[in-house]
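A reminder from the course coordinator: this example appears on the midterm review sheet, so study it carefully.

Given structure:
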């Protein structure tokens, strides 16, 4: 039984969902500086000794090319090919061929020695030679007993307790423990182990509830911390806050007590927790952030101002410049609300003098630019935009400000300056919605709001360049490069210890590995959150600067899952397939089983009642919203319908898809659609306002990455 479960894990490991707790937007929102899709960088693994220097050249996929590599004079190419040929043979139930390719391979392909032995043992098992399989597992334990693959060998040798003791984080161990809990859920040590390491399990939440409700008296503060982190990752903030209250009282844990209560609607409880944190750990950055939360929770500007003054003091003492800048911006806004012009002016001057490059400074400059533009003070408005582009070039507001500077220049009768501004925008912020909008208004062949649905770009689907992992063992990097996604995922669960506050390199690695196993929601979040972290953490900004100019990073951010189905049903509905792909990326991050709080289901997030209505239109008796083809079939019909309702205007079609036709019709009566850019800015629903831009930004990036240039 143990061995069969291990093999099942190796061949069909399900992914996991684990959202990280950092604050900030998920929006990409144009933080790219120069370089376009160029700027590849080279990488060498620092962890290997001769004879190998590992490169990022991925092996071929075809059998013929692999066999050519297997005869190469390059020892690394030869060994990589032999390993992959052994994997292919095993998948085709040809263990004898697999054993031939693996013969002696662990002696030359040293980073992969443990996985090679694991593969060889499986080949022997397929042959029915249990004696040699056992000998190979024992060899693995003897020669590579500290490698995580040893966990699988121990389980295969029916030694679960040593496996649990030595490799508690390994997915094979966690799956074994989960099997035991299915038989008897009242095993507290196993429940604690799953709470700490089993976030990827389907029934993870159930195990947390069993621990919390039945065995609370047997949990230590460290156990409560693990339980709290599990709830936090699953975005169940009320039980997370309750568990963090019983965890060791660190600044981070106390902050999450307050934030969890606030997110779950317990404002008095949040205020009490934030005050406890500030009083107990005043020398922490979490205390400064808690004080800012307290200020924003106060009911009136007069009540907020003294709280903000204390926040500034704490943020300055604890070297938290981003929090201090946010406090000054909030202070400015509250002085304005009180009509205290002098106080507002002092806050503004202090913000620009002390934290000129902060996100808060960018936000205030943008507010001032918009205020001047509303008064048609074009020179003043453009002056503030120039300040943003000078001091806040990496801000998500920079491309937006540059775009509107061009709009204002047009209104001021400066068409040449407008063209120059928009060309600058396209060059310096090439991945943003505003770059696409500027290119469209400059009449470049990138489509318009009324022609996007009809476009049929020729899509390039050849294998894309692979972004290397930023950290991890040489074995992990090799598994990833070889395309052995499940095996890389398993090893990473053992290697990835710093889960609560990972480094930028760990976060990038985690995101790439998750994408490899099809966990697009979390994988894309991990990559996109690097933009937010780079804006607030100088060391992350340094790490991220070359990365976001690397085309391989953008290919990772914009994958093409389910492309065949998307293309099939898009063309059937006369829709642009890349536009539909952009919509899916925004709606569901390609997760076929995802459900919103309101009940919207699957890839294009259809509400069940909407799906029923569409199915009647299509005379479709049987369908399932969690089946990708059914979901995309129904979703593309509805996207076609919203286009037809609004004369093929993609802006209005997207707004209707998100907010419903009733709201869109109401907005059309209130706002002027003749200027679509101002119409978008006027949309009163923040979700829909961002949604329209995000889908079009997604499309723009898909088009840049995958659309074949037209032949002259």
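Designed residues:
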């Amino acid at each position: 039984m143990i061995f069969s479960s291990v093999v099942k894990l190796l061949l069909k490991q399900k992914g996991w969902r684990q959202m990280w707790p950092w604050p900030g937007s998920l929006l990409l929102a144009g933080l790219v500086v120069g370089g376009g899709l160029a700027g590849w960088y080279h990488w060498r693994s620092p962890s290997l000794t001769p004879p190998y220097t590992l490169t990022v050249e991925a092996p071929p996929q075809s059998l013929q090319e692999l066999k050519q590599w297997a005869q190469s004079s390059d020892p690394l190419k030869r060994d990589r090919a032999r390993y992959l040929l052994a994997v292919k043979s095993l998948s085709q139930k040809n263990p004898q061929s697999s054993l031939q390719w693996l013969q002696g391979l662990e002696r030359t392909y040293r980073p992969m020695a443990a996985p090679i032995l694991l593969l060889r043992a499986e080949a022997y098992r397929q042959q029915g030679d249990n004696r040699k399989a056992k000998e190979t597992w024992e060899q693995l334990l003897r020669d590579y007993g500290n490698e995580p693959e040893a966990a699988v060998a121990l389980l295969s040798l029916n030694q679960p307790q040593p496996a649990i003791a030595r490799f508690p984080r390994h997915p094979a161990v966690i799956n074994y423990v989960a099997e035991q809990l299915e038989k008897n859920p009242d095993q507290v040590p196993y429940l604690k182990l799953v709470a700490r390491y089993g976030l990827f399990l389907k029934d993870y939440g159930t195990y947390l509830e069993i621990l919390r409700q039945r065995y609370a008296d047997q949990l230590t503060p460290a156990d409560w911390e693990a339980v709290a982190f599990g709830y936090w990752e699953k975005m169940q903030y009320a039980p997370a806050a309750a568990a963090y209250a019983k965890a060791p009282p660190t600044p981070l844990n106390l902050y999450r007590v307050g934030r969890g209560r606030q997110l779950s609607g317990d404002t008095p409880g949040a205020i009490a927790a934030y005050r406890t944190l500030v009083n107990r750990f005043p020398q922490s950055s979490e205390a400064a952030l808690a004080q800012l939360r307290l200020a924003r929770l106060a009911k009136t500007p007069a009540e907020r101002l003294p709280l903000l003054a204390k926040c500034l003091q704490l943020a300055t003492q604890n070297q938290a410049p981003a929090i201090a800048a946010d406090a000054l911006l909030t202070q400015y806004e509250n002085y304005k609300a009180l009509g205290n012009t002098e106080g507002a002016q002092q806050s503004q001057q202090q913000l620009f003098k002390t934290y000129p490059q902060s996100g808060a400074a960018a936000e205030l400059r943008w507010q001032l630019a918009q205020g001047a533009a509303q008064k048609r003070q074009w020179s003043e408005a453009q002056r503030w935009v120039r300040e943003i582009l000078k001091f806040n070039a990496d801000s998500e507001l920079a491309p937006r400000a540059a775009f509107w500077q061009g709009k204002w220049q047009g209104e001021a009768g400066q068409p040449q300056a407008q063209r120059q501004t928009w060309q600058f925008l396209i060059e310096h912020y090439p991945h943003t919605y505003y770059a696409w909008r500027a290119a469209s208004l400059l009449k470049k062949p990138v489509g318009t709001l009324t022609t996007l649905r009809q476009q049929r770009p020729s899509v390039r689907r050849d294998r894309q360049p692979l972004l290397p992992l930023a950290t991890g063992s040489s074995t992990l990097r090799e598994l990833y490069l070889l395309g052995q996604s499940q095996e890389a995922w398993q090893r990473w669960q053992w290697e990835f210890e710093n889960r609560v506050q990972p480094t930028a390199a760990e976060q990038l690695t985690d995101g790439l590995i998750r994408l490899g196993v099809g966990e697009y929601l979390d994988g894309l979040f991990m990559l996109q959150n690097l933009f937010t972290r780079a804006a607030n953490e100088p060391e992350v900004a340094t790490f991220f600067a070359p990365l976001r100019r690397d085309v391989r990073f953008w290919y990772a951010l914009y994958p093409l899952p389910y492309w065949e189905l998307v293309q099939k049903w898009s063309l059937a509905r006369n829709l642009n397939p890349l536009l539909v792909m952009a919509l899916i990326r925004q709606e569901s991050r390609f997760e076929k089983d995802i459900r919103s709080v309101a009940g919207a289901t699957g890839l294009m997030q259809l509400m069940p009642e909407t799906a029923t209505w569409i199915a009647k239109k299509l005379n479709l008796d049987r369908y399932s919203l969690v089946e990708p083809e059914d979901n995309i079939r129904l979703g593309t019909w509805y996207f076609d319908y919203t286009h037809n309702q609004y004369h093929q205007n993609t802006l209005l079609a997207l707004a209707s898809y998100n907010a419903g036709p009733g709201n869109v019709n109401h907005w059309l009566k209130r706002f002027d659609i003749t200027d679509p850019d101002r119409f978008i800015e006027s949309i009163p629903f923040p979700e829909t306002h961002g949604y329209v831009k995000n889908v079009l930004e997604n499309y723009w990036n898909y088009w840049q990455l995958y659309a074949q240039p037209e032949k002259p």
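The CA atoms of residues 188 and 218 lie 8 Å apart. Residues 563-706 form a domain with the Lysozyme fold (CATH 1.10.530.10).
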